[in-house]
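Field reference: sequence -> structure
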Amino acid sequence: MAGARRFEIVEHLTNTELNQAIEEAQKVDETRLVRRLCFVKNLYDGKTQQQAGEAVGVSQLTSSRWAREWNERGVEGLRPRFGGGRLPKLTPTQ
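Structure field:
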């Protein structure tokens, strides 16, 4: 692939540990985390960010964000963080 830049990925886990993390996430039905860990596994296997992102069906922007989060915080960086949403208009007594 001409012009594809290699992105340095921090190996927080060994391949075996990464496979175990994927299996554990599957057991507890954390599908979002499984997808993100599979993305990292693709990077470990030598794919570019774009190829790894395409393999799990995400955009280049998302794959860049996931790679950055992985490098900075490991598995915890890939766990989905939900903002909690909008506060209800009604009080509990209403």
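Note: The helical segments are 15-27, 31-44, 49-56, 60-73, 75-78.
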